Amino acid sequence: MLRVLLLILSVVAIAHAELCKPDAQNAFKVRLSIKTALGDNAYAWDANEEYLFKAMVAFAMRRYSSKSTTQISNVLLCNVTDRVSFWFVVTDSSKNVTTVPGSEVEAAIRMNRNRINSAFLLSDKTLQFLKITSTLSPPVEPSTPVWLIVFGVVLCLIVAGIVFLVVAGIRQRKKKNKESTERENLEEKGEVTITVENGIPCEVLDLKAGHINGVFAADDERFTPL
């Protein structure tokens, strides 16, 4: 019985080795730049990290297809290098001797790329799936709707315009009151007052004192009686 079990395990191991190898059908190469991304805080790539990677790929496959029964054991890694690069395949959970089509694996990875990156504290540039194109991160939506921002700007402009008109009207009224007060003061002192006609200041004759025409005054001085 033990020999049969060992034989089965060896057959499965050989089958898995044939499924997961460089450039195998439905296999993907992964390259990680942990040191570049994290510097002094870089972590070592070990069996625990490999387990986490398998778990994240299995999670992506299950999330991509709600009917999927992919397990961690269905994710196979091979050709792991010290510079942290390796190949992986996802086997069919029902047969376990064939791989899931690469198109499905690619779609699942692309759909959950941000979750996978976050698990390893990396980005699309430092966690590369060489046959899978990078995905753009979802656009950041502002907490305040755009229409509300536009409405606020327009409202501020309207309020600023109203305030400007009110202040300009007050200043104009003060200016008119000041001119009126000065004119009244001049009239009380009996001095020549200034009136404004059509926006042009005009002198008003003082009827009591009269007004001497300089031309005639000069003529009187020239023709002095004998």
From TrEMBL:
<feature type="transmembrane region" description="Helical">
    <location>
        <begin position="146"/>
        <end position="170"/>
    </location>
</feature>
<dbReference type="GO" id="GO:0051957">
    <property type="term" value="P:positive regulation of amino acid transport"/>
</dbReference>
<dbReference type="Pfam" id="PF16959">
    <property type="entry name" value="Collectrin"/>
</dbReference>
<feature type="domain" description="Collectrin-like">
    <location>
        <begin position="24"/>
        <end position="226"/>
    </location>
</feature>
<keyword id="KW-0472">Membrane</keyword>
<dbReference type="GO" id="GO:0070062">
    <property type="term" value="C:extracellular exosome"/>
</dbReference>
<keyword id="KW-0812">Transmembrane</keyword>
<keyword id="KW-1133">Transmembrane helix</keyword>
<dbReference type="GO" id="GO:0005886">
    <property type="term" value="C:plasma membrane"/>
</dbReference>
<protein>
    <submittedName>
        <fullName>TMM27 protein</fullName>
    </submittedName>
</protein>
<dbReference type="InterPro" id="IPR042944">
    <property type="entry name" value="Collectrin"/>
</dbReference>
<keyword id="KW-0732">Signal</keyword>
<keyword id="KW-1003">Cell membrane</keyword>
<feature type="signal peptide">
    <location>
        <begin position="1"/>
        <end position="17"/>
    </location>
</feature>
<dbReference type="InterPro" id="IPR031588">
    <property type="entry name" value="Collectrin_dom"/>
</dbReference>
<keyword id="KW-0325">Glycoprotein</keyword>
<keyword id="KW-0597">Phosphoprotein</keyword>
